[in-house]
Amino acid sequence: MKLEYIGLSEMVGSLIFLDGVSGIGYDEMAEITLTSGEKRYGRVIQLDGSRAVLQVFEGTKGISLENARTNFTGKPMELALSSEMLGRVFNGAGRPIDGLGELYPEERRNINGSAMNPVARVYPRNCIYTGISAIDGMSTLIRGQKLPIFSGAGMRHNDVAAQIVRQAKVAADDGEFAIVFAAMGVKNDVADFFKKDFEEAGALQRVVMFVNLASDPIIERMLTPRCALTAAEYLAFHLGYHVLVIMTDMTSYCEAVREFSSSKGEIPSRKGFPSYLYSDLASLYERAGILKGKSGSVTQVPILTMPNDDITHPIPDLTGYITEGQIVLDRELEQKGVYPPISVLPSLSRLMKDGIGEGYTRADHSDVSNQLFASYSKVQDARSLASVIGEDELSDTDKLYLKFGNAFEAYFLTQGVREDRSIDDTLDLGWKLLSILPKSELDRISAEDIDAHYVEDVTF
Amino acid sequence: MSETKYYIEGVNGPVVTVKGGRGLAMMDMVEVGTERLIGEVVSVEGDVTTVQVYEDTTGLMPGMPVFPKGAPMSITLGPGLLNNIYDGICRPLRGIAEATGAFIGRGIQIPALDEEKKWDVTICVSPGDELAPGAVYAECQETPVIRHRSMMRPDQSGTVLTVVPDGAYTVTDTLVTVKNAAGEILELKLAQQWPIRSPRPVEARCTITRPLVTGQRIIDALFPLGKGGCAAIPGPFGAGKTVTQHQLAKWSDADLIVYLGCGERGNEMTEVLDEFSELIDPHTDQPLMYRTVLLANTSNMPVAAREASIYTGMTIAEYYRDMGYHVAMMADSTSRWAEALREISGRLEEMPAEEGFPAYLSSRLAEFYERAGYMKTLSGKEGSITIIGAVSPQGGDFSEPVTQNTKRFIRTFWALDRSLAYARHFPAINWNQSYSEYLTDLTPWYNEQLGEDFLKLRARLQAVMKEETSLNEIVKLIGSDILPEDQKLTIEIARVIRLGFLQQNSFHAIDTYVPMEKTKRMMAVIFRLFDGCRGLIAKSVPLSQIKATGIFEKLVRMKYEIPNDDLSQFGPYEQAVDEAIASVAALYQ
Asked: Residue A286 and residue B299: Cβ atoms within 8 Å?
């Protein structure tokens, strides 16, 4: 029995209301045909007796109460999946926009996915080398992790993400890499930048792109990461790829959620965001991981721009509570000309502790990174003291800390956009920098390691 | 069972409105739709009953049937809970994985306990015995470290009619029949049902006199938690809430751990499961999982089940407490639970109070924390539940409603600090903001077990850290060189305390767990040095001379070098301190 409903009862923003419907399921997809022949897509978001509320993905512009006919598909939103997806470009709702025609689907899956059973997960332990010292050395990315980049408007987060994509490799190479790229509310230039960069790296055939530009409808923006992650799960757990998912910009996504929520008249919580923003973000970020008995993996690197560089804003705040760490970019470093401008102290990789050290990277990795963190945090104290009493008045140790801090930023953090440093280079560099400080200041490293690696009379 | 007059009227996320009759009671369990998703009645208004559904509601249609279960939301309690992992409404995740694969499906109904497994049961009663509520009628060895005692439900009593002989039985076999005062025959099995929102009754509440020994220096020495008490760990992300919870779950001297991952990361639960299966408990020499029940409602599992998970965990904890065990319950994180409450409250269109949280947030938190305590159980044993709740304040700001309301119901507060975490000082418990109100209650225990000098050393340590904080204000302005020598010494000793005592490396084989006695000796050595140095400085010896001996660095490393089981190794350190002092003193004779 397939019913077509003619006309609507009400419209508010991107929502349409239908009365007198029956046999419709919650979350079901609908196709809305206008008299002009134009087709739009919608989803049931609330049912109340015979009244259904639908959100229209493409917006309600041009729809009147009389010119629309609605067909329900009887299914939730599904994405067509196939190995042919690699190398293709889709819009935010998963329809091809590269002019290469429709995809012949091997399978269709609900884009909302389902929660991975913690019992079926494999705890991630294999690190992904990015060739970036600040990440490999101090906030190591692990396969199956979700590690966002917290940035701000105008900073070079796109360069960092592109460099990670270009240089990412695993220690024991046991599978093929694929990249899923989800652009949400980004400018055309940004989407182009990534496309060009993938092309130059010769990786385009291993990339699936989902693009929702800043001018595209916000409802579609809310679907974009879900489509991308459904594709990623298919590539990883069905086809066995190691998938790296880059999602940019999560801030645009969250703002779309807020806009949609307020159009539904929901009670806002902090800064107008709906109270379910945490659950909503979790339903995306938690789709990273490795499963028992499957060869592939899903690793996420979401990018978000912190409004007003404020790390306590709800978007970075809720993200940080869900993701397994964060890479924080810093405007001051950026202005000093440091690339990548990674602020190491607030950056963190929660899974790092189990993926480094003997048998994974190098035995001294953990101690060196802890010592670098501890020493660099003292640099901040020495600098603020110097700004009050002047550098000349500092104690000798504090002067050495200043020297260490400057060298750390100039040689460890700074590297070329195309410079790929091995983990050995990174750790050796770390030792060289620590050797600027007297041995007695190295309180996180064992005496044996200091004897083995400390560089006497180091110069920079 | 398939006949029902109730049907779905409307669907809005996890909230479903039901029509068809007026017979549904508040908090009753229902099964919704043809897939029979589990739900609970949350409000009744005339003909319309509102139900929160514990699973994804995709595909539910108005008109679908709703089946009342006629009882409040209950879980099955019995042997087999330990060494197992459940979701928020106590469905076994291993069973779910077998039924629906790596991703969690819907409408799955699997018994919480393995109904095939035979337990070696000893019957403790004989016909004619009078069984009071809470009386133990059967025992079995649930894991090598925990003996499971099947007790009369707290709301039942009667005379034993028949018993089976000792032997191997499953959780569904009837072991004992009892006739109660009303003349009804009760069939008692190894397992029993209990509604999760009703606290299990106890005989009496006792005062707290013993600490939960955690093996974490800053906690045991500075901010102890009583057995039967409540603690909160608030902190911004990355400050180490979860690692601290894991450390407490691993090393505290509770008999049993209920670990609740409430709205947290899936990988973390996998880590706990893997790690606890391998790690050996220092108190029993058996894998930690043998004393652990895990509950996981990861952040992408249904939000309504998150709200229920905290009660599920508490009910399990109370069940084992009633057997006479000391249970520690870790809830990571209570903020996610509060947010689930807020989300559902929003869907019910209730009037919000502060920051969108419902006005009943504080009374719900109070109900939860008050279920902790050191109790005399119905069967006359002593048992306790200690709650350690993580709080994830928005933006790390402790003035938000969940932290503030929690503070009213807990007595130990471990405030995690972002700047300590950035400097990789772990555990990042800020010694100026944290407090423990249990100290006075526990003073007799400390004096008796560890001697009166423990608390004296503790008081000195806290005073030094307090003084350092105020000195640091000055140092920030003028640098440390200008300070007088005795204040320089305070800063130097505080540095030793920070690095060598307060900082504890949870990934280091020796340092991850420290017995109380070692904690005390460490404080004693540090103050031996402090006193020695003060003597020298009074004789105008510059601090730099003493520092040159390297004794300060030596003490910083002692935590790694003195084994936990051989405290005689402190001897050489005491000697080294004395020698260093003497050698410097000799120079200034």
From this structure: yes
